[in-house]
Amino acid sequence: MPLLYPEQMVLVRIIVLRRDRSRIVAMLQRMGIIDFRKSRLGLQDDENADYYEVIPRMLSTVSSALAVLPKGPVARMGHMEPRELIKAVGREMDIIGRVQELGYEKAELEERIVKARTEGSPHESELRERLETVDRRLERISVSRYSRLACLKEMLEIEDARADAVLMFKRTRDTCVIEGWIPARREHELRRSLQESVSGRYTMEHVRTKEMQPTYYHLPGILMSFDRIVGMYSTPRSDEINPAWFMLLTFPVLYGLMISDVGYGILSLAIAAVIAKVTDKDGLLHSMANIWMLSSIFTVIFGVFNDQYFGFALDRYIFPSFLPFDWSHNVHIVIIAALLIGIFQICVGLALGMLNNVRMRRPRVVLAKLFMLSALISGAVAVSGILFHAVSPDIAVGGLAVSLASIALIIAFRPAQWGRLIDMIVYPISYVRIMGFGFTSVLIASIINDAFAPDISSGIGEFLLYLVVFVILHLANMALSTFEGAVQSMRLNFIEFFEEFYTGRGIKYAPFSYRRRHTFE
Fold first, then answer.
1. Which residues, in sequence order, are CB contacts of 344 under 8 Å at separation 6+?
2. pLDDT-wise least confident of 30-34, 62-66, 104-108, 115-119
3. What confidence tens digit (pLDDT) does each residue in 286-319 have?
4. Of 15, 92, 206, 428, which has the fewest beta carbons less than 10 angstroms from its beta carbon?
C-alpha cells in the first residue's frame, strides 16, 4: 500500500573529494533530494570559515535594505560564483548604506508625525512634506536598484543554505563525508547525477541504522491539503498509515452533516473558491480553502436531504425517501444515525490500528485491538436489542456474551488498556454533537426567517431595513456554523478517530533545496 504508508527511505553515505565539495552541494540543492543527517564527529577547521561568516552578514544587510525600498519589477539574473557574489554585494554597499539612512529617517519622521498629531502641533504638515521627500528618494533608488538587490538577496540565500549544509559534513584532510536520507525510488537518479558532476570521483553506500526514517508522502491533489492539517496536529511516523486519506472523507461528511443547508453550502463554496484563487498554492490558507470547498459540497448535499435553504423548507415532499434526515421532525433518528456514524468510524480506526501494529510486529497490541473491535460491535448489537428491540432477544443476548468475553480477553492480554473500554462507550456518544450543532444551526436559521424575513408589502423603507438585518444575521449564523462545524469535525477526527491508530511524533522529510524566483543557474 504505497499510497497509504510513507515512501521507503534509505540512509546513504556519500564520500567525495574536498575539492568537489561545492559542486556536489550545488547539485544536491538543485535536486532537492537529500535530508542531511547532522555530523556527530565535530567540525574541523575549514579554510572557508571567513566565507561562511561573510555571507550571512551580507544577507542580513541586503534584506534590511529591501525591506525599506518600495517593491518593483525584478529582471532575472544568472547565478554568480560565491567570490563574485561577495564582490557584487560590496559594490552595492554605498547604495545600501544610503537606503538604510533613509529608512532610519523615515521611521523617525513617522514617529514624530504621530506625536505631533497627538499633541496638535502645527509642525505636522512640515513633517509630512519631509516624509514625502524621503519616499520619493526611496522610489528613485528602487527604480534603478530594487531588481539587482532582490536577485543578490536570492543568491545570498542560496549560498547561505549551501554553507549551512557544508557545516554538517564530516571531513578529513582530503575528503568530505555526506550522510542523509533519500527516497529509495530516487537512488538511481542520485547516483547518475553524482557520476555526471564529479566523473566518478565518489563512493555511495547504504548506512544501517535503528533510527526512525523521516516521513515523506507523495500525495495527489487535495490530499496534500489534508496532509497539511494532519501535520499541524503531529507529523505521522514513517511506519503508520497516513490519516489524510481518511480525513478526505470523514471531515467533509461530518462538517456537511452539522450545517446541512443548501444556501450556506453554496455561499461557503463561492467564498472558499475566491480564497483559493487569490492565495499562494503552497500556503496553509490555500489548503484550508480547498478543504472548505469540498466540505461545502457535502453541506449542499445534506442540505437537500434536510430540505434546508437558508433555513427555509421549500418542499418536504420532493425527496420523500430522505425524510428521516429532517432535523426538525425526526431528531431521534438523527441521534441514532450520529451514534452509528461514531461506531463505524471508531471501528475503522481500530482496524487501521491493527494494520499499523501488524506492520510494527506487535502481536499483543493487534489482539487487544481485535478484541476491542469485537467488544464494540457486539456491545452495540446487544444495546440495540435490549433497549430498542432492533434485533431479536437471542441475538442481543449473544452480542452481550461476546462483548463480555472480548472485554475479559482485553484485560488478559493488555491489562493497561482497561481504561480504553470506557472510551469505547463514551466516544460513540460524543458523535451526538453532530445532531446538537446541526439542530442549533437549523433552529437559528428558522428563527431568523420567522422574525426578520423582509416583506415588500410593508413598504420599501421597512423592507430594506429588514433585508439588511436578515442578510447580516444569516451571514453571522453561517460564520458561526462554519466555525463550529470545522472545530467539532476536527475534534471528532483528532480525538475519537485518530486515537485508535495514529501515534504521530514523526520526523518530517526536509530535503535540502531552494526554489528560485529571480535567478537561474
1. none
2. 115-119
3. 999 999 999 999 999 988 888 888 888 776 545 5
4. 206
Rounded-to-5 percentages of helix, strand, coil across the chain: 70, 5, 25
- Can you give the pLDDT at residue 51? 62
Alpha helix (H) residue ranges in 19-121:
21-31, 49-68, 82-91, 93-119
Pairing of strands 35-36, 9-17: unpaired
Contact 372, 406 (CB under 8 A): yes
Cα angle vertex 253, ends 249, 258, to 5°? Answer: 155
Report the C-alpha gap between 53 and 82 in whole angstroms: 13
Cβ count near 447 (within 10 Å): 13
Triad 132, 59, 43: Cα angle to 5°? 160
Cβ contact 95:68 at 8 Å: no
In the chain, % of residues over pLDDT 70: 93
**In the chain, how long is the greatest CA-to-CA distance?**
93
Nearest CA-CA partner of 155 in 231, 92, 201, 226: 92
Q: What residues contact residue 8 under an 8 Å CB cut-off, 6+ apart?
A: 183, 184, 185
Task: With H, G, I as helix, E, B as strand and everything else as coil, classify residue 128.
Answer: helix
Q: Residue 18 in contact with residue 171, Cβ under 8 Å?
A: yes
pLDDT score recorded for residue 315: 65
The arithmetic mean of pLDDT across residues 498-503, rounded, is 88
Cell of 437: 450543532
Q: What average pLDDT score do residues 325-335 get?
A: 69
Of the candidates 345, 296, 354, the one whose C-alpha atom is nearest the C-alpha of residue 493 is 345
Distance CA 374, CA 370 (A): 6
Q: Please count the other Cβ atoms lying within 10 Å of the Cβ belonging to residue 59.
A: 19
Q: Over the Cα atoms of the chain, what is R_g?
A: 31
Cell numbers standing for residue 37: 543527517
Do residues 120 and 487 lie in contact, with contact meaning Cβ atoms separated by under 8 Å? no
Selected residue with higher pLDDT from 410 and 355: 355
Q: Determine how many CB atoms are found less than 10 A away from the CB of residue 75.
A: 9
Q: Which residues contact 41 (CB under 8 A, 6 or more apart)?
A: 170
User: Is residue 435 within 8 Å of residue 448, measured between CB atoms?
Assistant: no
How far apart, in whole angstroms, are the C-alpha atoms of residue 17 and residue 253?
57
3-class DSSP state of 95: helix
The DSSP element (H or E) to which 467 belongs, if any, is helix 460-491
pLDDT digits (tens, 9 = 90+) for 387-414: 888 888 889 899 999 999 988 888 887 7
Where in 155-201 does DSSP place strands (E)? 170-171, 175-183
d(C-alpha 142, C-alpha 68), whole Å? 10
